[in-house]
Design brief:
The protein is of the alpha/beta class. The chain has two domains: about 280 residues, 3-Layer(aba) Sandwich (Rossmann fold); about 70 residues, formyl-coa transferase, domain 3 (2-Layer Sandwich). It is built from 18 helices and 13 strands. Helix 2 crosses helix 8, helix 7 packs parallel to helix 9 and helix 8 packs across helix 9. It is elongated, with a radius of gyration of 26 Å. The chain starts with 13 loop residues before the first helix and ends with a helix.
Length: about 425
């Protein structure tokens, strides 16, 4: 059970100095939403024990490209190759294999549960019950267990609906508010639902840990991806705004905040945010058109909202005649917030982003020589703890000897016998 580590030392690994050092997590997750939740826990110092069936059962193992050969392979994986996704999502985790369908495998699992603080699963609804490792069963043998379920549509969702990220985006309403008013609904360009839900799951786990500290009791934390995304969307009061005649899809500009949008420059695009009157007037001065501040259409925020299309046209006529760098420099010199619209690669290479560990370079011996990719770090800074990913993703079953031997006390002979019979 959780042994709160000493965080006064200034050296040591994330597992030793992370804020969650000593917290043991059983990871029964697949795909992205679940594994990202446990990745966050691992990046904060928790001991995360990733369990897969012998041979591998995380469906992300089927995600191309595969690495381990001379280059990236987008076809079926060759022997010895592994999905790039696995190298990314399993950093700082321990990997063991276990057949949960076998009686011996289930017995071993229950022994492991007795020594755990948290369990995270995102299997299809009903799977945990069919395996007889549901919350009621596990909480009976470990009352302090925090049992976390991450699902697409909630525990009562119809089994016929497979809630992938695109389905969750559609059901949440996010697509309807993404894109341009005269265009179709648009998917957000990265798996927003898959990435958002794990953060809510992490918050729920942390709250449950605090509650357990007061009550001594664990509990179930139930996270639905569609709940999380819809709740986030509701912060914008789209129901009222649409009823008032506003378009749900606003494209690259938010008319009620104009100037607030994306504008074309001579070489790319620039984002400008100047919704307050003083900021807008400063922008007019930067544009060399201070008289616009006296134009009743643009002097105050309400008028700018009504005449947003006209004002945005004036602004883009000015920006399109200059480079992005020149526009940003001039606006910033007048106290107006602006930034170049960067590519992901440009953002990932930002020295400040790199220095703070928000984005790191993925390191692993399986990566072919010369292939380098950026990946997520832990974008949280602590004054007295260490967070991040300092351990490469293990290969399947790498930690069988440690977990079954050192933690559960099995002998080498017992471990080899279990392996030979495909229990582990």
């Amino acid at each position: 059970m959780w042994n709160d580590a000493n965080h006064d030392e200034q050296t040591g690994s994330v597992a030793q100095r992370g804020p969650l050092a000593g917290l043991r997590v059983i990871d029964l997750t697949v795909a992205l939403a679940g594994p990202y939740c446990t990745l966050l826990l691992a990046g904060l110092g928790a001991e995360v024990i990733k369990i897969e069936a012998p041979g591998g059962s995380d469906i992300a193992r089927n995600n191309p490209p595969y690495v381990g050969g001379p280059g990236l392979n987008y076809n079926a994986p060759a022997p010895g190759e592994v999905s790039l996704s696995m190298l990314d999502r399993h950093r700082n985790k321990k990997s063991i294999t276990l057949d949960l369908k076998a009686s011996e495998g289930r017995a071993l699992f229950l022994e492991l549960v007795k020594k755990a603080d948290v369990l995270v699963e995102n299997f299809s609804i009903g799977t945990m019950e069919r395996l007889s490792i549901d919350y009621a069963t596990l909480s009976a043998i470990n009352p302090g267990l925090i049992y976390t379920s991450v699902s697409s549509l909630g525990q009562d969702a119809p089994p016929a609906i497979k809630g992938m990220d695109i389905i969750v985006q559609a059901m949440s309403g996010v697509m309807e508010v993404t894109g341009f008013a005269d265009g179709p609904p648009c998917r957000v360009g990265f798996p927003l639902a898959d990435i958002l839900a794990p953060h809510y799951a992490l918050s729920g786990i942390m709250a449950a840990i605090i509650h357990r500290g007061r009550s001594g009791r664990g509990q179930r934390v139930d996270i639905s991806m569609v709940d999380c995304l819809t709740s986030l969307l509701a912060m914008e009061h789209f129901d009222i705004l649409v009823a008032a005649g506003e378009s749900a899809r606003t494209g690259n500009n938010q008319d009620r905040l104009t100037p607030f949008g994306i504008y074309k420059t001579s070489d790319s695009y620039v984002a400008i945010a100047a919704p307050q009157d003083a900021w807008t007037h400063a922008m007019f001065r930067a544009m060399g058109q201070p008289e616009l501040a006296n134009d009743e259409r643009f002097r105050m925020r309400g008028g700018r909202a009504i005449h947003a299309k006209i004002l945005n046209g004036i602004i883009e006529t000015w920006t399109s005649s200059r480079s992005t760098e020149a526009v940003v420099s001039l606006l910033l010199s007048h106290g107006v917030t602006a930034a170049a619209v960067r590519t992901p690669g440009q953002a990932f290479a930002d020295p400040g982003i790199r220095q703070r560990g928000a984005v790191v370079t993925l390191r692993h011996p399986m990566l072919p020589e010369g292939i380098e990719t950026a990946t997520a770090g832990v974008p949280i800074q602590f004054s007295d703890c260490k967070a991040g990913y300092d351990q490469q993703a293990p290969m399947l079953g790498d930690h069988n000897p440690e977990i079954y031997g050192s933690l559960l006390g099995l002998s080498e002979t017992q471990i080899q016998d279990l392996k030979a019979r495909a229990i582990i």
